[in-house]
């Protein structure tokens, strides 16, 4: 009589183990650009917490492989390298993972969908029209930041699958896991207020700042976090020259390529300045003052009779910046606005959070949890 319960117990154990094994999933993260990592990593860490399978990062060879290798080591990432999208596709065909994350479009999605499900997880929530058009080639699911943008995407692409989860990139700050940077280690003064200047590569405000701009803010620490392209692309050499000049000032820290994430800079700073960048929305979501640099260096092909090209490049969400940040139409106006906002950081708090919720979604720090829940439930 005693043997029967033992057999039943063993059977239940085997069934449970088989179920748990079958419930595991395999995930691949396509890292075509280094700046995709800050959005991927919170999702990856949440996946590790669940202990529900395995994940691999697929890095594309490029100019900064040595820097990426050091990041891989520090983050302890299971990874592989590819030379191109063609080679990446060959790897994906062989691996047959349950899910593959993409930060942008991928040219072989039809082949991918023969062996795996695909995910689009954008790296930013900026105002460029490419935010929406990257869904021209549909993935199995696209995770979106908030009800407003989810509804817009569904109206544009009614046959695609969009799921509102929030903005995973901010989870580490919202959850208190990100403590910020050591100002002493950056040769900055921890007794001063700190602002971060996070310009994008184009259209950018960099060339519209004076050569001695750090001198105008000697009473502040200035952390400059340019877009990855400003530091890596040959066509933005002029921007790099100006950035490197500013870095010579005692109150300036210029981010390096291996400072690939804006997140620790946002966790540290008291105020942010930016232009046509997702950074404006991201920082506003933390309920800190934001200055919108609305004085941009435009190529002649974007001026005058060609100004329609800028309007085409920028989505209508760009108009919301004046509601989420303090608009500065010149450098002189910017100087005045910086001082006012540091003196009264809560003055625009209500509007800031309202529009941050609209453009970045729920700010509860659980976007990564919702993403992993979806992947497990829709294997």
SS elements, strand count:
13
Number of helices: 17
Radius of gyration: 23 Å
Mean pLDDT: 87
As for the number of domains, it is 2
Estimate the global geometry from the Cα principal axes. globular
Largest beta-sheet characterization:
7 strands, parallel
Per DSSP, what share of the residues sits in E-state strands of 2 or more residues?
15-25%
CATH class of the largest domain: Alpha Beta
Structural class: alpha/beta
Order of helices and strands: HEHEHEHEHEHEHEHEEHHEHEHEHHEHHH
Write the CATH architecture name of the largest domain. Answer: 3-Layer(aba) Sandwich
Helix content: 25-40%
CATH topology of the largest domain, which one? Rossmann fold
Strand order of the largest sheet: 3-2-1-4-5-6-7
N-C termini distance: 41 Å
Low-confidence stretches: 1-13, 15-20, 299-310
